[in-house]
């Protein structure tokens, strides 16, 4: 394939082309086991969950984010450049403390789009989403695992409902509240008293004696 350029690419254009070439070089048809694995991953994608997540994002961010075409591909294209994801996580914070900078114009260069998605992931982790619930940039950008993208958004929504700090918008029943820790506070005197308590699992030496015991290494005398 021959690439014809009417004008010099410049640094930005060169980086975009290089990134695009790198992605395409590592992408190809799936055969055998890899195709089987990919098929199983795709079956995990939940279209009913997609509808719920789309409704939440629109309510949370406002109608300006638009609405995607139904289905896996539409969902991917809608979120792919990272802008809507960034607006989503920003909406969970008060004014003046938004964690992600959102560009006025959606990024068109590949590496800029991937960078925007990476910023969302960092902000989601800082918000409290665990690493095990986090998707990888390529899961969304190349459509490798959109079920993982759904999992991350569900975890984010669950945290927002659980925090109940006034920034969540939408039906609270869309997400399950996460279990919260119930920490008990102890006074200094209670902590000191606890040091002198012997737990039952440690046993007791009350009533114990060395009566009838033989010295180490000596045979036990048996009298009939």
From TrEMBL:
Residues 202-213 have a biased composition (Polar residues). Residues 47-160 form the Calponin-homology (CH) domain. This is Transgelin. It comes from the Eukaryota. The keyword Acetylation applies. Keywords: Acetylation, Cytoplasm, Muscle protein. GO terms for cellular component: cytoplasm. It is found in: Cytoplasm. The keyword Membrane does not apply. Residues 202-224 are annotated as: Disordered. Belongs to the calponin family. SUPFAM superfamilies: Calponin-homology domain, CH-domain. InterPro entries: Calponin-like (IPR050606), Calponin_repeat (IPR000557), CH_dom (IPR001715), CH_dom_sf (IPR036872), SM22_calponin (IPR003096).
């Amino acid at each position: 394939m021959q690439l014809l350029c009417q004008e010099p690419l410049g640094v930005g254009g060169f980086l975009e082309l290089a990134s695009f070439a790198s992605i395409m070089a590592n992408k190809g048809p799936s055969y055998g086991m890899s195709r089987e694995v990919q098929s199983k991953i795709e079956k995990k994608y939940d279209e009913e969950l997609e509808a719920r997540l789309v409704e939440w994002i629109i309510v949370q961010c406002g109608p300006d984010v638009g609405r995607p075409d139904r289905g896996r591909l539409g969902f991917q294209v809608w979120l792919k450049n990272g802008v809507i994801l960034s607006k989503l996580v920003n909406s969970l914070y008060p004014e003046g403390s938004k964690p992600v900078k959102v560009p006025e114009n959606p990024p068109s260069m590949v590496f800029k789009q991937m960078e925007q998605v990476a910023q969302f992931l960092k902000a989601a982790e800082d918000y409290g989403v665990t690493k095990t619930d986090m998707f990888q940039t390529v899961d969304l950008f190349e459509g490798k695992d959109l079920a993982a993208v759904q999992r991350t958004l569900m975890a984010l929504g669950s945290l927002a409902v659980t925090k109940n700090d006034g920034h969540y918008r939408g039906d609270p029943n869309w997400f399950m509240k996460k279990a919260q820790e119930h920490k008990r506070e102890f006074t200094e005197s209670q902590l000191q008293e606890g040091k002198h308590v012997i737990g039952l699992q440690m046993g007791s030496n009350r009533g114990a004696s060395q009566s009838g015991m033989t010295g180490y290494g000596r045979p036990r005398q048996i009298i009939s």
